[in-house]
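Kindly review both lines to help learners:
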Amino acid sequence: MTGGGGTEVFCRAAQPIAWARADSADTIRAVKAHNAVGVALCGWTPERRGTVQGAGFVPPLSRILPLPNAKQD
């Protein structure tokens, strides 16, 4: 946790992001990085991804964490 409580704030406010086939490689990399932060700091898992406060759209798991050996869009 950060000294200023930044992790707690992020975990309350952030939610997983999905990408689309039409997104650029840079956008997809940024989305994957954001989602990796959520996994590392907030414990996002397939079971918990819909529990983010205020979450409306919850992308499919394959759009949150690339699965090993899975074809990516």
In short: Helices lie at 6-13, 25-42, 61-64. The radius of gyration is 13 Å. The chain has one domain: 6-63.
